[in-house]
Amino acid sequence: xxxxxxxxxxxxxxxxxxxxxxxxxxxxxxxxxxxxxxxxxxxxxxxxxxxxxxxxxxxxxxxxxxxxxxxxxxxxxxxxxxxxxxxxxxxxxxxxxxxxxxxxxxxxxxxxxxxxxxxxxxxxxxxxxxxxxxxxxxxxxxxxxxxxxxxxxxxxxxxxxxxxxxxxxxxxxxxxxxxxxxxxxxxxxxxxxxxxxxxxxxxxxxxxxxxxxxxxxxxxxxxxxxxxxxxxxxxxxxxxxxxxxxxxxxxxxxxxxxxxxxxxxxxxx
Length: 269
Prior knowledge:
By secondary structure, the chain is an alpha/beta fold. Helices cover 36% and strands 26% of the residues.
């Protein structure tokens, strides 16, 4: 069996933890992997934890007890978070993104791995203590963001559909009114998409009045589970009350009356 130097073990342990956020690894897992004693691995983890704290790379948490171990929690420092948000705000404020009608082109942001990596970590940090069992979104633009959030929380992603798909098997559906135009729509979810009594985090890319999120809340209830958090990347500023309460949003987009200028602000710091 190969013997590893300390720097080799530390590099490998760091890679393993960062690649699987919020998953608990026992000391035995690492002792068997590196053919090292528990005391040696414990010393390695102290070094890893110290590096992460000094460089503000997240948190290495030690869990005591028989089922204990160690896990990585992706926490972004306030300085880094401010940098991410400001860079994204400046990108979104470019005139080239303006679309007639007071809209902004967002697709390349929502499908950019670098952006969704950071934004998913921000959402995960916000809801880390909510005991999330599943992250839920509705197709399609919010899927990358929801998937990265689910990855950071180490939970499965469930995608509700706008159309019925036979290969989903037995399906539940609900009708809901779009909050933006009042049109009646239908949303579908496989009956076996989540366990009964699960805690669900809803993640969506854009919210105008909140009709779609309200629909997801209703469908989660039909699945006999509970919505314990709602995260939205962009919300549109509205004078009237939204259809959902108690949500966390990163950006507010405020189209002006001229429909030619859009104000973008963040309020998470």
